[in-house]
């Protein structure tokens, strides 16, 4: 069964998605139920556009080996694509709990919340991300978009100016500043 797993990895690296999925499935059927098999098969299902099957495999990884923020992030991304925003937020919350200093988790959560409705939480998520890494212009740019959407133009301009101060040639910050 380990041979099937290794074969699935090689096939996946070469772009043989269907063959890779079959090999990982064969490894599972022969009793090699390692979380890595499920994780790698989920990656192949994602490549094939079979998001539901990928989510099932990532859920199995979480059951067998809890505590991996990356798995929660991948499952959140799939759920976002499927429009399952509340469930995606659950995964993002779990990723933040597992890795509270990982700035990207809070950024993604803030962007998602900004997209799905008027909440105060996105601003809080961006604030947490800035506390963790105050010199990240991307956080300031995303928060500026949030402020601009809610007609808080003075705050949006301040964030864009701060982003430009941190990174004077940041095209996105300069471009967005031109629209406000």
Walkthrough of the structure:
There is one protein chain. The chain has 180 residues and is an all-alpha fold. The chain is built from eleven helices and no strands. α10 (153-166) runs antiparallel to α11.
Summarize the structure.
This protein is mostly helical and 180 residues long. Helices cover 79% and strands 0% of the residues. The chain has 11 helices and no strands.
Keywords:
mainly alpha; 11 helices; single chain; about 80% helix; elongated; about 180 residues
Q: How is the quaternary structure best described?
A: single chain
**How far from one another are the termini?**
59 Å
> Helical proportion?
over 70%
Percent of residues in β-strands: under 5%
N-to-C SSE series? Answer: HHHHHHHHHHH
* Low-confidence runs of at least 5 consecutive residues: none
């Amino acid at each position: 069964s380990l041979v099937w797993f290794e074969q699935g990895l090689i096939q996946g690296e070469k772009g043989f998605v269907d063959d890779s999925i079959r090999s990982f499935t064969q490894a599972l059927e022969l009793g090699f139920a390692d979380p890595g098999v499920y994780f790698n098969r989920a990656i192949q299902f994602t490549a094939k556009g079979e998001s539901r099957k990928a989510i099932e495999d990532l859920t199995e990884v979480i059951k067998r080996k809890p505590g991996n923020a990356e798995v929660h992030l991948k499952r959140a991304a799939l759920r976002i694509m499927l429009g399952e925003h509340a469930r995606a937020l659950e995964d993002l919350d779990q990723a933040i709990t597992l890795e509270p200093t990982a700035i990207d988790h809070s950024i993604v959560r803030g962007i998602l919340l900004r997209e799905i409705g008027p909440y105060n939480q996105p601003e809080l998520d961006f604030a947490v991300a800035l506390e963790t890494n105050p010199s990240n212009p991307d956080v300031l740019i995303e928060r500026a978009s949030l402020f601009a959407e809610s007609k808080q133009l003075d705050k949006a301009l301040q964030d864009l100016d701060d982003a430009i101060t941190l990174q004077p040639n940041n095209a996105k910050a300069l471009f967005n500043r031109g629209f406000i």
